[in-house]
Amino acid sequence: MGAGVLAMHTSSDRPENESNKQYILGFLMTLGAAALYGFILHLVESTYKKAKQEISYALVMEIQMVMCLFATGFCTVGMLVNNDFKVIAREAREFDLGETKYYVIVIWSAIIWQLYFLGAIGVIFCSSSLLSGIIIAVLLPVTEILAVIFYKEHFGAEKGVALALSLWGFASYFYGEIKQTKKKKLAASQTNLPSSSSETEFPSVPNPPEIV
To answer: Could you tell me if 155 and 149 are in contact, meaning their C-beta atoms sit under 8 angstroms apart?
Structure first.
């Protein structure tokens, strides 16, 4: 919901000379990519649970490396087919901050995204895919707040509502976890209580001696 609120009044993100059909198609593909990524988080958690060997963080990093290599190969093929590599040089020349800074930003963006993905699957390894998804959802309005602080962007009502909804979901998750943990501890303590008096074993009385 927070991401949906941020999507309101964002007509400025539409490139010039783009048709309604292309814009709607891009919007639907973005929604599909978000849904697919949500499935990936759950599938990664299912992989950990169904693995027939002990899951260590080294193995988690290997899984992430394989996923990234496959994604890189898939994107590379698409860029080769669409001749997107030729566009990179043109974008670098037209970049307002300079060609050198363009490549620096591209390289650091790739490094930061790798750290982001590694952290996401690390949260799944330590907790669950649900917590990973909640943290990702919270990061979106936090990014908007940082943009307001460092880049002096306008902080509208939509950003405030998105931040409140995301923090609400984040707090609700931990509140539910705390209640669930208390219930488990209470159930465990009741299980460890001594048995009732009806089930208490009494010492056996010796039989009287037989009379010959």
So the answer is: no
